[in-house]
Amino acid sequence: MSTAEPITDQVRVETLYREHHHWLQAWLRKKLGDTHQAADLTHDTFVRVINSDQINQPILEPRAFLTTLAQRVLYTFWRRRELEHAWLQALAQQPEETCMSAEDYACVREAIEAIDRLLKGLPAKVRQAFLLRTLDDMTHAEIASAMNISIASVERYMKQALVHCYLARHLLDPQA
Amino acid sequence: MRQPRQMATGTSGIDATTETAIDWIIKLTSGHTSATDRASFDQWLAADTRHLVAWQEVSTLLKQPVTAIQQADLLTPGQRQAARLALTATPPSTTRRKMLGSSITMLALGIGAYT
Fold it and tell me: Whole-prediction pTM value?
């Protein structure tokens, strides 16, 4: 890692910000229909700009570059909302009323998001079988029975899920 | 040394040791593990430090988030099921705008406001 680089990177980030952040915020506002959220996600997008491996070279198409990063930010935002919504709906259907501290709430919500990131891209049946095993501690025979599939299929799904998680982990966090 | 049956699933991208570790974890968490399986696993694990490293990595892939949910489940039963439903009910491809309404659901449920 060179010590002279960050200054150049910083100048690039500042230029991008100065010339395009109003445009980006307007673009996000159109997608979100909310000014405050657009401002937040503009900020998140620029955090990704700073961490981008492309910022150490000239950005030829700045708006295309920003749009690509902003789309990822949007995806994370929508997905977080969607998971939280589904989670709260499931909790609301529990016989007993759920009472959680804000801290526990955040902890579980983040845990669900972390699992979702690793499972992203897996077929629904594979996800389901794998979660019955991992979260609910069901045996392969119980999963086979619950999902009306063979034990061999359960084993195949487990393998697919674990290989997927392993690869996802290395893609998301190459240092791990 | 006996190893768990390798399941062919087109597992390109991972090394053979990692794949064996994955096959072991599937075997050992199947709910149908014999004493012989367990002994074979111990033998495999002890045979090479690379086996141990691969095992530790594979067996802790989801440990942190899963533990968090299971602990929450002890405090407020139903968390595991709710988490599983959330993770299976909505595959990522269907992410939609309408979920913006979820903050209203939160208020309606009176669950600790977290923003």
Answer: 0.78
